[in-house]
Amino acid sequence: MATTDKAPAAPAHDLATIGVVGAGVMGVGVAQNLAQTGHRVLLLDLKDEVLDTARAQIRQNVRFHGMFSGTRGGPSPAEVLERITFTTDYAPFRDADFVVENATEKVAVKESIYPVLDAVCPPHAVFAANTSCISITRIGSWTGRPDRVLGMHFMNPVPLKPVVETIRGFHTSQHTVNTALRFLGQMGKEGIVVNDLPGFVSNRVLMITINEAVWEVQDGVASAEDIDRIFVTCFGHKMGPLATGDLIGLDTILHSLQILQESYGDPKFRPAPLLVKMVDAGLHGRKSGRGFFDYSVPGAAPAAA
Predict the structure, then answer these.
(1) Half-sphere exposure of residue 95: CA atoms within 13 angstroms, side-chain side
(2) What residue numbers does the annotated binding site cover?
(3) DSSP states of 66-88
(4) Annotated catalytic residue, options 33, 61, 132, 288
(5) Which helix or strand (DSSP H or E) is residue 19 part of?
(6) Is residue 153 annotated as part of the catalytic site, yes or no?
(7) Which residues bind NAD(+) per the record (predicted)?
(8) What is the pTM of this model?
(9) Binding site residues for NAD(+), as ranges?
(10) Which domains does the chain have, with CATH numbers?
(11) Has 203 been annotated as catalytic?
(12) Rounded to whole angstroms, how far apart are CA atoms 284 and 176?
C-alpha cells in the first residue's frame, strides 16, 4: 500500500555531500535544489560541454527564481554554484553520503553506472535511481548493496515540485527508506513511498494517458491543441497530456512505454506509431524546440505549458 511519510529524525550520517549522476534536465534540477538547500553537490557527466551547459542553466534558473518568485534572502547564483563540483570523474564520489542517478531511461546505460558507483562510494552511501519505469529491484542487483538502493522519481521542474515518488525495492531496508525521506526533507520535499513494479504509480498511469492522446491525434479525433484544452479546462489540469509529453521529452515517453510493454507483456503499453515517427524525426518536445507544439517561436506553445 502507498504511504505518505514524514522524514524521520536522528540521522546516522549528516548527508552533507551528495553525488548527482547526469547533468541533463533532471540532474540539473536535482543539483540546483540540493545546492540551494545547503548541500555540497558533486555533479557528474561524461562531457565537459554538458557540464558547461549545466552550469549556465543553473545560474540562469537561480537568477530567474530570485527575480520572479518574490522571495528575498535566498542564495545567489554564485553561492549556489560554489557548492557544486562539476566533474567527469567518479573519484570525488568517494566522499558522497547519498547519490541520485539521473542517466537516460535506458537499461544498458544505467546498468553500466552502478558497478562504478558501488566500487567508488563509501559503504554507507545510499543510491537513489531517478527512474520512471525501470525496476528498482533490478537496479539493486547491479550492486553489492541492494539494501541501500531505492527509487526516487523526481518531477520536472525539480525545485518547484514538493513531492517525490519514492520506491522501495525488494531488498531496500527500512533504514534506507528512512534515510531517503530525511534526505528529501532536507531538500524541502515529502516522499510518498510506493512498492516496486515497473512504472510505479505515476508513470504506469501517465504513460498510457499520453500515449492514448497521441493515438487520438493520429486517428484524427482532435487536434493536439483541443485535446490539451479539454484536460486543462474541463479537468483543471495545469497542463494537457501532449504538452506534458513535450515537457518530459517524447523520446523519454517512447523509451518508458517500451520498458513497460516489455515488463508486463501487455499490449496496452504499445507506443502509437505517430509517437515513434516523431521521435525518429527528432521532434522530441521542448528540448528539441518542437514536439506536438512549437517552442521555437515565442507564444506559439500552449499557455498551459
Answers:
(1) 11
(2) 22-27, 45, 105, 110, 132, 156, 287
(3) HHHS---SPPPHHHHHHTEEEES
(4) 132
(5) strand 17-21
(6) yes
(7) 22-27, 45, 105, 110, 132, 156, 287
(8) 0.84
(9) 22-27, 45, 105, 110, 132, 156, 287
(10) 3-195 (3.40.50.720), 203-288 (1.10.1040.10)
(11) yes
(12) 35
Q: CA-CA distance, 112 to 132, in Å (whole number)?
A: 18
Q: Is position 212 annotated as part of the catalytic site?
A: no
At 274, the amino acid letter reads L
Residue 252 vs residues 25, 120, 140, 275: alpha-carbon distances, Å: 12, 29, 22, 11
* Residue 43, H or E segment: strand 40-44
Among the listed residues 33, 39, 101, 165, the single catalytic one is 165
Q: Is 39 a catalytic residue?
A: no
